[in-house]
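Exercise 3.2. Students should predict the tertiary structure of the chain below and write it as structure tokens, then compare their answer with the key that follows.

Predict this chain's 3D structure.
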Amino acid sequence: MNSIQTQISKNPVEIAPELSLFLPVLDEEENLRPMHAKISEALSELGKTAEVIYVDDGSTDKSLAILREIAAADARVRVISLRRNYGQTAAMSAGIDAAKGEILIPMDADLQNDPKDIRRLLDKLNEGFDVVSGWRKDRKDALVLRKIPSQIANRIISWIGGVPLHDYGCSLKAYRRDVIQDVKLYGEMHRFIPIYASWAGARVTEIPVDHHARTMGKSKYGISRTLKVVFDLITIKFMASYQTKPIYVFGTFGMLAFFISILSGIYAIILKLANRLGFPQYHADFVETPLPILSIVMFAISIQFILMGLLAEMLVRTYHESQDKAIYAVREKIGFENGRSQY
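Answer key:
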């Protein structure tokens, strides 16, 4: 009996915190201490159990050393140091994977997000929502280089993704664990998490949050990120419409190419036979018009598209069946308790 008690005491059951905050960090040495002080103050006012996960994304300054000091002084802090700079999406994915809380809250480490808004996010979640997104309604960034492009991008993303949010780029959000734990992120897709959650049946909303101008450190965002977001948008649109039926998109382009091939071939034959049909002025041999070549090329392209669609269908089925992954998500089950039978 004593040996069992000793073993239990050595391996206590880990109690999951109520909240998990995770912050990607890249060269933010000036901001980390004041940011953590604000986080500590906000968590103290909440009175909830919490963990704070800092993900160092290959910082080249003293950020990691400062994070070690913060972790040594605060038992709630956990630090993940990535081997190199993988980007914000990978850093956020690492934070999600490490988080143990029932509510997951990402935020930036540059002092532009205000931890005091966490309470407001939680209050909105308690109204029955699964995802609450922050909206930097009074954004403290450059108008031409940041705010206007962001507004345009948010409108396009909302239209394509079907989730009308004003500010996809705001890192400060709150998620229930069950709507985010299976989300896999690639590229620059961390900003599209509310869309993924909505596809899984999550109830998504947004609230205005405070936004402060950057006073220390350097912004990591640039125009070069815009092109990546465009490519990710194309992926999002494809996944939204054809994730489980890719043959529809490949087959559509394949049939379009096939019809162009047929029409080009018929027109080339008509030109060839123009003399016999009584229209000598339109006569043209096959070697005098590009139509036969166009017909052959488009026919080959149509076959390729259809075969690619079939291959994509096989990959989709392999993806779902090999992982025993359903193509649907269940919010709740009723009447299944205690082996209850319908018959």
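Discussion points: Residues 145 and 223 are 8 Å apart (CA to CA). DSSP finds ten helices and seven strands in the chain.
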